[in-house]
Specification:
The complex is a heterodimer of chains A (367) and B (395).
Chain A: H1 7-23, H2 26-33, H3 41-49, H4 68-81, H5 87-101, H6 104-115, E1 121-124, E2 145-154, E3 161-166, E4 169-174, E5 180-185, E6 194-203, E7 205-208, H7 214-245, E8 247-248, E9 251-252, H8 257-285, H9 291-317, H10 328-340, H11 345-358
Parallel strand pairs in A: 1-3
Antiparallel strand pairs in A: 2-6, 3-4, 4-7, 5-6, 8-9
Helix pairs in contact in A: 1-4, 4-7, 4-8, 5-6, 5-7, 7-8, 7-9, 7-10, 8-9, 9-10, 9-11
Chain B: H1 7-23, H2 28-31, H3 36-52, H4 71-83, H5 92-105, H6 108-119, E1 125-128, E2 144-148, E3 151-162, E4 169-175, E5 186-192, E6 198-203, E7 212-223, E8 227-228, H7 234-270, E9 272-273, E10 276-277, H8 282-312, H9 318-341, H10 359-367, H11 377-388
Parallel strand pairs in B: 1-4
Antiparallel strand pairs in B: 2-3, 3-7, 4-5, 5-8, 6-7, 9-10
Helix pairs in contact in B: 1-4, 4-7, 5-6, 5-7, 7-8, 7-9, 8-9, 9-10, 9-11
Amino acid sequence: MQFGLNESQEFLRDSARKFFAGECPISEVRRLMETDTAFDVTLWAKLVEQGYAGIIFPEELGGVGLGIVELVLLMEETGRALLPGPFFSTVVMAGSLLDALANKDQKKKYLAPICQGDARATVAFFEPDGTWDFADVHLTAINGKLSGEKLFVPDAAVADWIIVVARNGVFLVDSKAAGIRVEPMYGMDLTRKLYSVRLDDVPGEKLGETAALPRPRGIATVALAAEMVGGMQRTLDITVEYAKTRKQFGKPIGTFQAVQHQCADMYLETESARSAVYYAAWALQHHAPDAAAAVSIAKLYASDSSRTVGNRGIQVHGGMGFTWENDLHLYYRRAKASETAFGDATFHRERLARLTIDAETASAQKS
Amino acid sequence: MDLNLTPEELAFRDEFRAWLQANAPKDWAQWREKPLEESFPYLRAWQRKLHEGGWAAVSWPKEYGGRSASLMQQAIFWEEMARLEAPPMANALGLGLIGPTIIAYGTDAQKKRFIPKILSAEEIWCQGFSEPNAGSDLAALQTEARLEDGQYVVNGQKVWTSYGWVGDWCELVVRTDPNVPKHKGLTVLLIDMKSPGVEVRPLRQMTGESEFNEIFFRDVHVPSENVLGNVNDGWNVAVSTLMHERGAYGTRLLLIFKRNTNRLIELARTIQCNGRPASQDPILRQKLAQCYAEVEIMRLNQLRACSRISATGAPGPEGSIQKLFWSELNQRLQQLAQELLGPYGQLLAKDDHSIDKGFWSYGYLRSRGNTIEAGTSEVQRNIIGHFVLGLPRSY
């Protein structure tokens, strides 16, 4: 048993870190977050060139064919860089959904262009008065046409296709089709834009049944948790650096135990979230019987700890941490948006309770 | 990353599992509730049996009677012990902490003299570190050893000594040079507890038991060949023991926590709360799930630390991270048990109404010590702050 990264996994992580540090420094993040869509064509092309858009998809579609462990390593780096734009929505949400549900022709038509950087897509799930539970999805396709409203759809304004999760199936619609109205929602996280999508009798192409949703959803959930871990790590790094250099009472504030212990807790929470994410990724990749529980454990822990790590980091920075100029609030904002996306800690604790307390045996768990 | 057991790990597991099934005593359940004073001969006999099978100290190098087991094999060993609910070993500190320190720092003569009897439980070891005025600040200890006619003469007091009442030998940290900075004047002595001038007193703790002792040393003579490591290098020797202390318990505790969490879930299914099983109460469900998740994360943190140490070859501050996590987690787990049991949670073993024969009231009180023993949570956070994150020393 070996719960460390192998050489090629370390290489992937290191080269991704270098790539984002070079191509997407925080100055670029700040520039893009002030734009309407936070999307940059050049950055997207470079990212595609690295193979990131096809990282977990089959090589015959132009993908790289790597596993979910590799995906979470990449997501940690997008989280550390606070990568703006539609990477998570296109590759992780829409891509893994297409990979799991679509037929061969549909994959060629929709997933291949995503891998090759020629198209972007997103997924519309959440409904007004709904939750992240599929039981709360009511929009129903009637004769292949979709009508209703979806909220919190990431990057819909730059998506070529919107994949709509309906009560009776998963449907792909052209974002330019008549009857679709995409309007911005203004959230705390300025780097990942959210939209409401209103559909009025829009024809949809059916990709598959909703029974196949849990797996792509598990992948997206753990990838998001991995991105949160990357943000936590960056927050910790910035904070430790500050504690070493900022002086009060004639010495670095990191000398004081009240500050040191905040940093120690940030470290413990970050590492614990990382352990949970790595395991969930491995369990999903290998279809382990406890994969569903592992995904919920990763998301519930990351949801709570990315918030507390942000709180501690800003607290250690004092007044400086409360300024717009300091980068921590950018991570803090992303953490809050990610905390609730795909279910917050309370949501996943209840899901875990169903899997472990209500189930007679652990082997009854479904992924 | 590969979380499946390797063929070697599987073979190790199967071999030990078969041995354990054939050799583990079947009557441990009748003994485990009894005071340690009564069950101790039983535990000694069990350790002897493990030793005869070559299983008493799997982590030790082969030449010293171990199996040179990898960290993962050690984890497998404890998992199997827990799975079969096998009794613990009598000489826990000798095997887990002091033996490895003697192997690392001892002379050939010391190894020959002490190691075999640690393995066979013929000589039980205790650890004389903390003092009334030296807890977290261990290096401030005052028990002194003066060299007189080729022998050390020891005077002072130790406290919180586990197994003191049954100890044949003690790994004792003493001050041999009071005129240098505190870390530089310490030496580790191996002391025969039957020496004249050694007095052991029970220390009654808040649970009512006496797991620990106070030990008084009055002009105790120790031959100079019983110095472990170099004179005035005792701090490094002691730290080596402490690293074993913080690292070693994790795996064993994990299995206890898993069992306790499952026990809580079972209890929640039967206890009524607002007219339905507590397991259906939305708030208790949240707390049970959180506990379940944190115990699982403790397991995963341990596995990652295991892999990291195996890759780098050196145990670092991982032990501090584990210790901090498990001690605080156990307090949350015990508090959750109390919430679940309501007024029954407080009942002691002797009360007929108590749940699980007072297991949870004892567990609650005992867990209060977890964040203090083997290095307080504050000390562990200092270690993480300084040694992991590179923050300046606070003291």
